[in-house]
C-alpha cells in the first residue's frame, strides 16, 4: 500500500539565481505482517498521509540533488526508521522545466516547460537486500521524415499493407533501464548521456541520417548503442508506440501531392517492445 501522485515544486536559491524541480512521487510499502488485511489490526500501518508528509519533509531537508538520489533517500528513510517495513518502492517523475533564455542569456528565475520527454526513476529495496535503481524517459516523441521503410514482410490473404522503401518514422518512446545495485553514480550525467544515445540511434548522422528497415530494428539500435557506451546500464527496456501518416489524395483538387501533406492515423496504432541486457546480469 502507499501514497500515489504526491506533487510538489522544490525551489532552491543560490543568491539571486533560482533552481526548480517539480516532481510527482509514488511511495509504496510492504509490511512484515499482513495483519491489517487479515485481522483488521492497524497497529503497524503507517498512514498514507504520513507517507506523503515524509516525502515532503525529505524534499525540504535534503533537496533533490537528482531524481534517483531523492528516490534512494525515500527508500533509506523508510528502511532505517520503521522496523515493520519489509519492502519499499519509490517512483519519481519530473516536470520538464528548463531555464528560460533571452538572447542567449540564461534568466535567473524564469523557466519554460518543454515537452521533450519526461524523466523518471524507481528505487526499490527489500529488508536485508540490495537497493536497486531504475531510470528512464517516457513520452519522448520523435520523427524522421525519410530514411525509413518496411519491406519483405510476411504476406498472406489478409495482407493489404503495401511495401514502402521511403516513409515517415514517427513514434512515442518509453525507455527504462536498470543500474543494478545502487552505487555512487552521477545519475544526472548518465541520464543525459543515455538520452543523447537514444536520439543519435534514432536519427543517425545529422548530414545524412541512417536507414531504418523497421521500428523493431530502430528499437534494437537504441539499446545496442546505450549498452555499448554506458557501462553502468545492465538492462534496457524500450517500447515504441508508432504513429502512422497517410498521404492525402488531392487529385480531385487538381493537385499532385508528393508526400507533402499527410494526416496522422489516430487509431489503431502499432507498438513494438524489447528488453535487452548484459548476459552477466541475466545469469546473476
From TrEMBL:
<comment type="function">
    <text>Catalyzes the oxidation of uric acid to 5-hydroxyisourate, which is further processed to form (S)-allantoin.</text>
</comment>
<dbReference type="Pfam" id="PF01014">
    <property type="entry name" value="Uricase"/>
</dbReference>
<feature type="binding site">
    <location>
        <position position="48"/>
    </location>
    <ligand>
        <name>urate</name>
    </ligand>
</feature>
<comment type="pathway">
    <text>Purine metabolism; urate degradation; (S)-allantoin from urate: step 1/3.</text>
</comment>
<dbReference type="GO" id="GO:0005777">
    <property type="term" value="C:peroxisome"/>
</dbReference>
<feature type="binding site">
    <location>
        <position position="216"/>
    </location>
    <ligand>
        <name>urate</name>
    </ligand>
</feature>
<feature type="binding site">
    <location>
        <position position="150"/>
    </location>
    <ligand>
        <name>urate</name>
    </ligand>
</feature>
<dbReference type="GO" id="GO:0006145">
    <property type="term" value="P:purine nucleobase catabolic process"/>
</dbReference>
<protein>
    <recommendedName>
        <fullName>Uricase</fullName>
        <ecNumber>1.7.3.3</ecNumber>
    </recommendedName>
</protein>
<feature type="binding site">
    <location>
        <position position="48"/>
    </location>
    <ligand>
        <name>5-hydroxyisourate</name>
    </ligand>
</feature>
<feature type="binding site">
    <location>
        <position position="150"/>
    </location>
    <ligand>
        <name>5-hydroxyisourate</name>
    </ligand>
</feature>
<feature type="binding site">
    <location>
        <position position="216"/>
    </location>
    <ligand>
        <name>5-hydroxyisourate</name>
    </ligand>
</feature>
<keyword id="KW-0659">Purine metabolism</keyword>
<feature type="binding site">
    <location>
        <position position="167"/>
    </location>
    <ligand>
        <name>5-hydroxyisourate</name>
    </ligand>
</feature>
<keyword id="KW-0576">Peroxisome</keyword>
<feature type="binding site">
    <location>
        <position position="242"/>
    </location>
    <ligand>
        <name>5-hydroxyisourate</name>
    </ligand>
</feature>
<dbReference type="GO" id="GO:0004846">
    <property type="term" value="F:urate oxidase activity"/>
</dbReference>
<feature type="binding site">
    <location>
        <position position="49"/>
    </location>
    <ligand>
        <name>urate</name>
    </ligand>
</feature>
<comment type="similarity">
    <text>Belongs to the uricase family.</text>
</comment>
<feature type="binding site">
    <location>
        <position position="242"/>
    </location>
    <ligand>
        <name>urate</name>
    </ligand>
</feature>
<feature type="binding site">
    <location>
        <position position="49"/>
    </location>
    <ligand>
        <name>5-hydroxyisourate</name>
    </ligand>
</feature>
<dbReference type="GO" id="GO:0019628">
    <property type="term" value="P:urate catabolic process"/>
</dbReference>
<feature type="binding site">
    <location>
        <position position="48"/>
    </location>
    <ligand>
        <name>O2</name>
    </ligand>
</feature>
<keyword id="KW-0560">Oxidoreductase</keyword>
<feature type="binding site">
    <location>
        <position position="242"/>
    </location>
    <ligand>
        <name>O2</name>
    </ligand>
</feature>
<feature type="binding site">
    <location>
        <position position="167"/>
    </location>
    <ligand>
        <name>urate</name>
    </ligand>
</feature>
<dbReference type="InterPro" id="IPR002042">
    <property type="entry name" value="Uricase"/>
</dbReference>
Amino acid at each position: 500500500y502507499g501514497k500515489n501522485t504526491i506533487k510538489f515544486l522544490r525551489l532552491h536559491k543560490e543568491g539571486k539565481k533560482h533552481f526548480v524541480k517539480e516532481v510527482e512521487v509514488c511511495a509504496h510499502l510492504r509490511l512484515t505482517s499482513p495483519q491489517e488485511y487479515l485481522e483488521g489490526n492497524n497497529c503497524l500501518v503507517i498512514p498514507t498521509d504520513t507517507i506523503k508528509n515524509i516525502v515532503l519533509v525529505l524534499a525540504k531537508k535534503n533537496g533533490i540533488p537528482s531524481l534517483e538520489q531523492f528516490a534512494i533517500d525515500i527508500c533509506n528513510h523508510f528502511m532505517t526508521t520503521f522496523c515493520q517495513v519489509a519492502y519499499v518502492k519509490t517512483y519519481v517523475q519530473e516536470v520538464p522545466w528548463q531555464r528560460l533564455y533571452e538572447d542567449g542569456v540564461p534568466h535567473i528565475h524564469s523557466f519554460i516547460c518543454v515537452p521533450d520527454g519526461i524523466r523518471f526513476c524507481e528505487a526499490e529495496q527489500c529488508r536485508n537486500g540490495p537497493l536497486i535503481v531504475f531510470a528512464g524517459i517516457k513520452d519522448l516523441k520523435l520523427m524522421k521524415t525519410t530514411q525509413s521503410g518496411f519491406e519483405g514482410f510476411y504476406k498472406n490473404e489478409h495482407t493489404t499493407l503495401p511495401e514502402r522503401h521511403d516513409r515517415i518514422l514517427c513514434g512515442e518512446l518509453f525507455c527504462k533501464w536498470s543500474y543494478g545495485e545502487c552505487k555512487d553514480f552521477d545519475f544526472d550525467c548518465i541520464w543525459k548521456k543515455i538520452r543523447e544515445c537514444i536520439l543519435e540511434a534514432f536519427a543517425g548522422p545529422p548530414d545524412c541520417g541512417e536507414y531504418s528497415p523497421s521500428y523493431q530494428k530502430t528499437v534494437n539500435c537504441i539499446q545496442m548503442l546505450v549498452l555499448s557506451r554506458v557501462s553502468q546500464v545492465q538492462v534496457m527496456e524500450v517500447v515504441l508506440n508508432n504513429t502512422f501518416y497517410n498521404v492525402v489524395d488531392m487529385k480531385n483538387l487538381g493537385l499532385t501531392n508528393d508526400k507533402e501533406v499527410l494526416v496522422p492515423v489516430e487509431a489503431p496504432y502499432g507498438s513494438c517492445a524489447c528488453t535487452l541486457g548484459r548476459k552477466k546480469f541475466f545469469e546473476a
